[in-house]
Amino acid sequence: MASSVIRRVCSRAPAFLPKTLTLLPHPASSSSVILPKVCLKSSSIGSCRMISTSRILQKETITIHLHMPDGEKVTTKAKIGDSILDVIVENDIDIDGYGACEGTLACSTCHLIFTPEQFKSLPDQATDEELDMLDLAFSLTDTSRLGCQILLTKDMDGWNIKVPSGIADARDV
Length: 173
What we know:
Blueprint: E1 6-9, E2 20-25, E3 32-34, E4 38-45, E5 48-52, H1 54-57, E6 61-67, E7 73-79, H2 84-90, E8 111-113, H3 116-121, H4 128-134, E9 144-146, E10 160-162
Parallel strand pairs: 6-10
Antiparallel strand pairs: 1-2, 2-3, 3-4, 4-5, 6-7, 8-9
């Protein structure tokens, strides 16, 4: 069966998908296939045709360990590509006031502390906006970052991350 390849650039694609998708018609239905071997249905998002199915949205998971201020260690599964803020909210992990601005970089309540090795291996450096919020965070360290800005990767499997003993909501300053 001959088919033409359709390429679409999607600026609003989820982080786990490439920005350019190669679509092929699926031989058995009117759905499309994203290479390699994933059957998709089309739906419109923004100015591009985006893909959605439960199969592609089943992201690979890793395990992270959160060390709470009271000494408790909370171990949770986390989807690759999600922010640490998303993981804490989706898993109903009780951290008082955590993520008050819902990841809009308007507070510092999702402040986390990483080991020096972890901090060096984070895929992205903090932006100026994140650094401005971190300046207002409680118990700031040289290895502090905001959980809303850290997208999980496969390399973070098994990481131990410290939750500071208090929060400072930058919106109240």
